[in-house]
Amino acid sequence: MLDALKEELWKLHLMLPKEGLVTWTSGNISARDPESGYVVIKPSGVMYDELRPEDHVVLDLEGTVVEGHLKPSSDTASHLYIYRHRPDINGIVHTHSPYATAFAALGRSIPVYLTAIADEFGGPIPCAGFALIGGEEIGRQVVEHIGQSPAVLLKNHGVFTVGKTARAALKAAVMVEDVARTVHLALQLGQPQEIDPEAVAKLHHRYTHVYGQ
Amino acid sequence: MLDALKEELWKLHLMLPKEGLVTWTSGNISARDPESGYVVIKPSGVMYDELRPEDHVVLDLEGTVVEGHLKPSSDTASHLYIYRHRPDINGIVHTHSPYATAFAALGRSIPVYLTAIADEFGGPIPCAGFALIGGEEIGRQVVEHIGQSPAVLLKNHGVFTVGKTARAALKAAVMVEDVARTVHLALQLGQPQEIDPEAVAKLHHRYTHVYGQ
Amino acid sequence: MLDALKEELWKLHLMLPKEGLVTWTSGNISARDPESGYVVIKPSGVMYDELRPEDHVVLDLEGTVVEGHLKPSSDTASHLYIYRHRPDINGIVHTHSPYATAFAALGRSIPVYLTAIADEFGGPIPCAGFALIGGEEIGRQVVEHIGQSPAVLLKNHGVFTVGKTARAALKAAVMVEDVARTVHLALQLGQPQEIDPEAVAKLHHRYTHVYGQ
Amino acid sequence: MLDALKEELWKLHLMLPKEGLVTWTSGNISARDPESGYVVIKPSGVMYDELRPEDHVVLDLEGTVVEGHLKPSSDTASHLYIYRHRPDINGIVHTHSPYATAFAALGRSIPVYLTAIADEFGGPIPCAGFALIGGEEIGRQVVEHIGQSPAVLLKNHGVFTVGKTARAALKAAVMVEDVARTVHLALQLGQPQEIDPEAVAKLHHRYTHVYGQ
Question: The CATH number of B3-209 is which of 3.40.50.12780, 3.40.225.10, 3.10.20.30, 3.60.15.10?
Answer without folding.
Answer: 3.40.225.10
